[in-house]
């Protein structure tokens, strides 16, 4: 009788609370060993102990501030060296709602480090191993604001647009090599990130999704093989039409002549 191969270890960033902690719970339920990454070591230890107790899975803690290149390097090294890690959940992120004219450059830079630089570097650290073995998964948590930046002030939406575009490019490059890539675009989700930017009191209740609901929907999309998952979108054909419209423009986006509307007759007496 053949022995089943062990399930891939899942490394989850931003795992100390909210979406990341819920992903940890769900993957532990499925029997996956875990590597939990966040700044708050005490919270991580508490979560790891609970998951090991309830689900009998191994849960390692790797405390790191992903905005610090030195601390981020520890996570990158783990991804390069630990052959058991086959799934990466890039969840760590920070919000920023200040209008661009008033935003502190330092705050925006820190957000870009966490929302853009960190996931890019972690994928780069893991990808060569996944490609070499021909299977594995990368789940990137973006935001619905990636396709609706007008709904929220500041550079946050732009950082999440990067995550969406990066995931689409990554999928195109790695799908034929057996790797799975998913980008999740949640709407407003009840997490601690909102405490940093004024809370949820001003947002209608029907727009706020609970974390369990969001993650369970995202994992259902993952199980169905979706590349883009928008948990609250009732009809996936709305996304498909949006994506198709974008693709139809592609042949016209780079040509050797400018569009006629940008050309005008030069007056004879000029």
Quick one: biggest sheet?
7 strands, parallel
Could you name the CATH topology? Answer: Rossmann fold
The CATH top-level class label: Alpha Beta
Low-confidence segments, ≥5 residues, pLDDT <50?
Answer: none
Q: What is the rounded distance between the termini? A: 88 Å
CATH architecture: 3-Layer(aba) Sandwich
Please indicate the count of domains. 1
Gist?
It holds the Pfam family adh_short. This protein has helices at residues 18-29, 41-55, 69-81, 105-133, 156-174, 211-223, 236-249, and strands at 9-13, 34-38, 59-63, 85-90, 136-141, 179-184, 228-229.
Describe the structure.
With 270 residues, this protein is α/β, with parallel strands linked by helices. Helices cover 43% and strands 13% of the residues. The protein has seven helices and seven strands. Helix 5 (156-174) links the parallel strand 5 (136-141) and strand 6 (179-184). The mean pLDDT is 90. Keywords: Oxidoreductase. It comes from Dyella kyungheensis. InterPro entries: NAD(P)-bd_dom_sf, Sc_DH/Rdtase_CS, SDR_fam.
